[in-house]
Amino acid sequence: MSDKATLEFEGKKYEFPVIKGTEDELAIDIKTLRGISGIVTIDPGYKNTGSCESAITFLDGEKGILRYRGYSIEELAEKADFLEVAYLLIFGELPNKEQLEAFHLDIKNESHVDEEMKKILDGFPKSAHPMGVLSSLTSALVAFNPGSVDVASNDAMYHSIVRILAKFPVLVAWAMRKKMGLPLDYGDDSLGYVENIHKMMFKKPNQEYKRNKVIIDALDKLLILHADHEQNCSTSTVRIVGSSHAGLFASLSAGISALWGPLHGGANQAVLEMLEAIEADGGDTKKYMAKAKDKDDPFRLMGFGHRVYKNFDPRAKIIKVAADEVLSDLGIDDPILNIAKGLEKEALEDDYFVKRKLYPNVDFYSGIIYRALGIPTDMFTVMFALGRLPGWIAQWREMRLRKEPIGRPRQIYIGANLRPFVEVDKR
Ligand code: ACO
Question: pTM above the 0.90 mark?
Answer without folding.
Answer: yes
